[in-house]
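Q: Could you predict the 3D structure of Amidase domain-containing protein?
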Amino acid sequence: MSQSLKLIKEHASNPKLWLVIGIGVAGIVVLVETRRRTRRGKTHKQDFGAFVERFELLPFPQPPPPAAKQSLSALTFAINDTFDVKDYVTGFGNSTWKSTHKAAEKTAVVVTALLMSGATCVGKTVVDEFSFGISGENKYYGTPTHPQMPSCKLGGSSCGSAVAVAAGLVDFAVGTDTTGCVRIPASFCGIFGFRPSHGAVSTIGVLPNAQSLDTIGWFARDPSILHRVGHVLLQLNSVETKRSRHFIFADDLFQLSKIPTQNTIYVIGKAIENMSGYQAPKHLNLCQYIDSRVPSLRLHQQSTHQQNETSILKTLSSVMLSLQGYEFKTNHEEWVKSLKYKLGCGVSDHVIAAINTTYDNIKALYKVRTEMRGAFQSLLKDDGILVIPTVAGSQLKLNTKKGFSSEFHDRTFALSSIASVSGCCQVTIPLGYHDDCSLSVSFISFHGADKFLLDTILDIYSTLQEQVSVGSYSLPLPNINGNRETSELLKEKGNAAFKERQWSKALSYYSEAIKLNGTNTTYYCNRAAAHLKLGCFQQAAEDCGKAILLDKKVRKWARNSGYGKFIFCYLISSYYNF
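A: Sure. Here are the predicted structure tokens for Amidase domain-containing protein:
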């Protein structure tokens, strides 16, 4: 038996030995893989490719007493590439647009409001070209990488902002939501995403896609930060009269979903059954309701020869897309026609169709919008919350044409069109993971009920979290009141998932454990191993570095001990002969 193997056998019970082995394995594989990829001319993106441009806009100074403390003090945020920042060119997700426009003379109202509240802006993020897509892909600035599932699509158009939040690069991020552009990537990235009531947040200084649908939305990992940002952007009062709440489940929409919907309905029902002020939930066939309350949409449905029950939502989504196309053409036709160049994958057809289409039924489209708002005001009144799936299926893989199929668009836009056309506020709520895919649910409340909806999330989330953790979902929600015992449980669940070769699930568990206890060396080592299995070698190297830095004794021991040298040599030999 070699000297190296004897040393390993003699000290097998020493936990530090296995820590060094873990770090050594990760280091070796990182080194080898980095060299291999360098030879192939491939490099990893910094910051998961979320940013177009990094800069720092410092917050306004804290006003002297008796002024209240700035509500977003010490928080960082990012904005997508549709927001104006003084002396920077707003790129609109397109390099040709950027090269043909001048730097902004003023900063967008939204950005200024956040700076005045104490937050620091750290840069602009990637957005689908012209905010005209839901794939999260951009041929000019690259496609951001999903922090948990690198092989999956993110959804768009505010993809970079979603990634910046999901990866922990910022505390919150701001994006635009026209046809689902905040809600969809929030769902796919497993974070909160809020689309406010139409017109509730100023769009001054933001490049328009379609004004009657455009809203300013935001992302956060923590419901309390989501709530605080909302109070700033919506200019809300901190005090509101307590009122009851009643949930309405759109049963027909959950039947369309490909995710485990019965779990969602059960979890929410259990969460509210013993909470004060929450009435027993009701159930509704939403398609039938819309069909009976929006007569102009029914006429539009007849003109397109779509007569089955669920086709009413496809008709609604076609109205949404027609409105978007008409207003985009009004805003940007002159510029698009002045330049002849190839647009991004999946975007070119949309833009060309919008510019070339003749819109003869505009008044009828706007009438649908007006009737939808009235119908939802009648349905939800002043205490109703509609519960629907955020998306109808799981993430799609990168580099697949399925992402642009009619089925994908139909199912996605059918759900997102409800809030987009009615102007209601909607929040995407993460519900963990199932089969290596993130799960979410959406709450919708009536136009103008933004504070009511934000307060509801803050009120219900911890209870919802408890129900998910004991339910049959694969991963519990982030525990905002977590402790070391909970983080250890998450680590053990991660280990179990790792043994089952469920790398993404294991990575998620370890990441949640780190959120609860970021000083545990083992958690970083374990997550590094999961990163390696997923091919995220740069992230693995970063976690290994954090593990070494966290424990000075381990760093010194690994440097000075003979075990480290012998084990390292043994591992190299094993790796190359594996």
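Q: Anything worth pointing out?
A: The CA atoms of residues 290 and 375 lie 7 Å apart.
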